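Deliverable D2.4 — example input (structure tokens):
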């Protein structure tokens, strides 16, 4: 066997090993689209065996509409008009489910019989994140409420259609303007107070106030204002939800005025009950008037619209006949109100057959001339859309963390699967060159040094990929992943990390595991950078209802308040991650007396779980 043949044989085995070990799906096909070879990753992605995939045609991998787009490009490849192409499409798994893949196709024309190589990366998680962002954007644009974002200087940076409807300014007129264009001059001090509370980290809930429109009209609004933070937890602005409550305020004012009139009206004109019926009929809000037997005496037009009722068929009928799915707890409230009590709720849910409806309501008795309750007045406002907006806004921090983790995972995979493998291959090839007897001794020495540097660089890339995305955390659980990271971190930073774990529950949810893993990374980096000591201590343990993590050093320490004001040491990032899981973060530190970071998260029943044994 010649020298060239001996060299090619290990190279072929090396590339076969890389083909089989690649985490990305790879298929080698004929120009007719028939698979010749498929690697294990492609089989795992689609759930078929290698034999099953090789018996299929490439158009059988996807739904018809996706396969048609792929095959049209494949025909251009066969015709020689292109030599490669890329597209995102869906793939059909053996169990009938669909996954998204990023497909790259290249023509291998150097082969005696031209072949095609297809490389597929699973992008299902990325597609789901894109769909979630589109749903949130659709809700923001379709709501009748104003959704406005502003920067730390209270300058408007986004403006939805609801804001234009309420305040009259177009998006181009509002963006870039100070928010004070909406604030009446007499309320500027109030706005400054709100900004101060927001900058201190407070969330403003259902704050009722008055704002000016472009036309100079006053509009009553209920405000919900939340801080906006980037993926590191740094405060970058505020998001404001403004709900127009002008009609409600007018209705409340009219109700108060009517009650005042009724209290002073004599029976010489008409009965109090008749006046109240007139008011209920014409009030610009959802109001119903019922007698003591819960039969309808009158209902406003808005009530009929909100609950899809025909006013001509409503009077005299029982409230419980109209709404047979009214919960028992509301019936008890009706009994309390008929006894003379006024009951209200800023938000309450009604689980109906078509879904959950959220309402703001008030129930109060109306009185006969003898002062006794004659029945009930029910005031109702449908706030379902507002609740949907609030839930969407509350999901923004979680989506930011999820997007950050997806990007970390993508970069980690690319470092490990692409750059890491290429560096490893380069190191092997340099070793082969170094062993070549034709290479001069000086060049061989230099080659050996370069091979050593390449191996060290490959190890650093592998360590970085593990820090960005830990496969151990996914497959072996929190304790094993943390122990492995502490060992790698200690070797890389030349410090001793003493890790202990005990009394952990058998199941820990993936989001809790990932949260603690990121807190550990941030805390160890901070300690190694700022403490000035070479020994760190990590403890992970569980109780009956919580999981705890401490990272301790005996180094330089710091002033806690000064650290918070400087927004340093990654404290915000750790706090935000824990807050999403209703967890807590505490820090015990003093100058020259070391630092202890303690994180805890409550256990949640019924959550998705991974192995936590270690």
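Example output (designed residues):
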């Amino acid at each position: 066997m010649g020298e060239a043949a001996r060299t090619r044989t290990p190279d072929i085995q090396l590339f076969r090993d890389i083909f089989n070990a690649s985490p990305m799906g790879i298929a080698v096909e004929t120009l007719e689209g028939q698979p010749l070879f498929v690697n294990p990753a492609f089989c795992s992605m689609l759930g078929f065996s290698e034999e099953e995939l090789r018996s299929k045609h490439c158009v059988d991998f996807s739904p018809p509409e996706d396969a048609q787009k792929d095959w049209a490009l494949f025909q251009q490849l066969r015709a020689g008009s292109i030599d490669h192409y890329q597209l995102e499409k869906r793939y059909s798994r053996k169990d009938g489910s669909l996954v998204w893949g990023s497909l790259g196709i290249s023509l291998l024309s150097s082969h005696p019989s031209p072949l095609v190589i297809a490389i597929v990366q699973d992008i299902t998680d990325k597609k789901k994140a894109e769909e979630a962002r589109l749903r949130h954007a659709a809700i923001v644009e379709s709501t009748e409420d104003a959704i406005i974002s502003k920067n730390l200087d209270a300058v408007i940076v986004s403006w939805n259609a609801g804001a234009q409807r309420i305040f009259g300014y177009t998006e181009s007129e509002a963006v870039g303007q100070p928010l004070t264009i909406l604030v009446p001059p007499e309320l500027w001090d109030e706005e400054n107070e709100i900004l101060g509370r927001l900058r201190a980290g407070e969330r403003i809930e259902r704050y009722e106030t008055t704002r000016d429109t472009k036309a100079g009209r006053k509009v009553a609004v209920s405000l919900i204002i939340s801080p906006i933070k980037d993926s590191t937890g740094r405060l970058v602005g505020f998001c404001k939800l403004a709900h127009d409550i002008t009609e409600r305020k007018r209705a409340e004012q009219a109700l108060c005025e009517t009650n005042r009139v009724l209290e002073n009206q004599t029976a010489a004109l008409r009965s109090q009950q008749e006046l109240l019926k007139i008011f209920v009929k014409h009030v610009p809000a959802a109001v119903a008037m019922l007698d003591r037997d819960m039969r309808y005496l009158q209902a406003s037009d808005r009530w009929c619209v909100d609950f899809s009722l025909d006013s001509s068929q409503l009077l005299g009928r029982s409230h419980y006949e109209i709404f047979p799915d009214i919960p028992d707890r509301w019936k008890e409230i009706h009994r309390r109100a008929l006894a003379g009590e006024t009951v209200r709720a800023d938000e309450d849910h009604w689980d109906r057959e078509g879904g959950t409806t959220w309402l703001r309501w008030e129930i109060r008795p109306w009185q006969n001339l003898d002062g006794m309750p004659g029945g009930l007045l029910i005031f109702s406002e449908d706030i379902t859309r507002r609740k949907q907006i609030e839930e969407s806004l509350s999901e923004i921090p979680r989506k930011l963390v999820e997007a950050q983790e997806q990007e970390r995972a993508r970069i980690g995979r690319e470092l490990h699967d692409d750059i890491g493998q290429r560096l490893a291959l380069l190191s092997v090839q340099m070793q082969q060159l170094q062993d070549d007897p034709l290479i001069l001794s000086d060049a061989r020495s230099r080659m050996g040094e370069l091979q050593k540097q390449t191996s060290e660089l490959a190890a650093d890339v592998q360590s970085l990929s593990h820090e960005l995305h830990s496969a151990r955390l996914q497959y072996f659980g929190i304790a094993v992943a943390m122990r492995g990271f502490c060992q790698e971190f200690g070797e890389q930073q030349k410090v001793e990390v003493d890790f202990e774990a005990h009394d952990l529950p058998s199941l820990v949810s993936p989001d809790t595991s990932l949260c603690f893993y990121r807190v550990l990374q941030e805390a160890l980096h901070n300690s190694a950078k700022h403490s000035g000591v070479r020994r760190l201590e990590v403890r992970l343990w569980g109780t009956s209802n919580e999981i705890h993590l401490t990272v301790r050093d005996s180094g330089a320490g710091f002033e806690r308040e000064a650290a918070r004001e400087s927004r340093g040491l990654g404290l915000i990032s750790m706090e935000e991650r824990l807050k999403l899981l209703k967890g807590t973060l505490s820090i015990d530190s003093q100058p020259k007396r070391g630092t202890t970071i303690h994180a805890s998260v409550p256990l949640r029943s019924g959550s998705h779980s991974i192995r936590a044994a270690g």
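The chain has four domains: 22-122, 130-244, 248-391, 470-611.
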